[in-house]
Amino acid sequence: MPAVLPSHSPGAPLDTTFLFQCITANIICSIVFGERFDYKDRQFLRLLELFYCTFSLISSFSSQVFELFSGFLKYFPGTHRQISKNLQEILEYIGHNVEKHRATLDPSAPRDFIDTYLLRMEKEKSNQHTEFHHQNLVISVLSLFFAGTETSSTTLRYGFLLMLKFPHVAEKVQKEIDQVIGSHRPPTLDDRIKMPYTEAVIHEIQRFADLVPIGGPHKVIKDTEFRGYLLPKNTEVYPILSSALHDPLFFEQPDTFNPDRFLDANGALKKNEAFLPFSIGKRICLGEGIARNELFLFFTTILQNFSVSSAMAPKDIDLTPKECGIGRIPPTYQICFLAR
């Protein structure tokens, strides 16, 4: 991943990894830290690099092997050591930021998530069983910051790779953008309901990308019988989201990219109960609403202003993930943005 904002000539090939990270990270930063970062801020760049590397490492084959034999392999060198080192550096930054917030906190005017959490901690300081303590604050910020950056930016990278592979889809999206929004104003969230094809394309990008095949861990809170199996209390359970997103009973030819599967006979967006990119249940993704809004606004704004192309012919573009484990990492690629 580039360490600084690349100098870029209009229309020249570009790796979007860094830019998509920046735009998504700054949204979650404004919510969590109460500030946005310049794209050349060295600390910001370092955090983005750590996020990208860590997400790739935890999705690697070696990490999957470690998960199977962690009791033995934890004593040996490996990717788990680098993952731990990366996360520790991120946690140290978050901890330092929390202390800065604590020193400048104004109880009458909370600035962001950290301030609000600190106020709740103060309110519950006499409760020995409270969940609102320093460690949970730091881990919560890490979860929001990491998930709010990598998942949305990686979905966008997959999305534009798919637009290069299937240019007729990008053209249909642009046609709908021209009809509903035009070229003289930016897209707004109110446009979503009027753009069923674009929404169907974003849905299919999320389904096809299958970004987090194994959802976040859940824990059984009591002995539970499920389909003839006994799950003892405190058993960790992982929802296999990929099995739903690729279920042929709900998605015909699930291994093909087909946005029309999310449209009814009248061209309206239709729901599909197996569409679960944000997981399911009480542990469903906390940022689902923000992520849906981000994907729509970024996707439509870019295609409103640019056509996309590649030096490779669509038939030669490979969609095979770079890594596939806890997450699916798209292959690196170059894309040209041409002003419309």
Could you characterize the architecture of this molecule?
The structure is a single chain. The protein is mainly alpha-helical. It has a single domain (17-339), classed as Cytochrome P450 (Cytochrome p450, Orthogonal Bundle). It has helices at 17-32, 42-58, 61-68, 70-73, 79-103, 113-123, 134-165, 167-180, 196-209, 241-245, 288-305, and strands spanning 218-219, 224-226, 229-231, 236-237, 306-309, 323-324, 328-329, 336-339. A two-stranded antiparallel ribbon has the order 1-4. Helix 1 (17-32) packs antiparallel against helix 7 (134-165) and helix 2 (42-58) packs antiparallel against helix 5 (79-103).
Task: Sum this structure up briefly.
This protein has helices spanning 17-32, 42-58, 61-68, 70-73, 79-103, 113-123, 134-165, 167-180, 196-209, 241-245, 288-305, and strands at 218-219, 224-226, 229-231, 236-237, 306-309, 323-324, 328-329, 336-339. By secondary structure, it is mainly alpha-helical.
β-sheet strand percentage: 5-15%
Question: Total number of β-strand segments?
Answer: 8
Task: Assign the CATH superfamily.
Answer: Cytochrome P450
Regions with little confidence, pLDDT below 50 for 5+ residues: 1-5
Report the biggest beta sheet as strand number plus sense, adding barrel if it closes.
2 strands, antiparallel
Strand order of the largest sheet: 1-4
CATH fold-level topology: Cytochrome p450
Q: Quick one: overall form?
A: globular
Estimated radius of gyration: 22 Å
The quaternary structure here is single chain
Q: What does the average pLDDT come to?
A: 90
CATH class: Mainly Alpha
Order of H and E elements? HHHHHHHHHEEEEHHEEEE
The level of helicity is: 40-55%
What is the correct CATH architecture? Orthogonal Bundle
Distance between the termini: 28 Å
Counting helices, strands and paired strands, the structural category is: mainly alpha
The domain tally reads 1
Count every helix, treating DSSP H or I runs of 4 or more residues as helices: 11
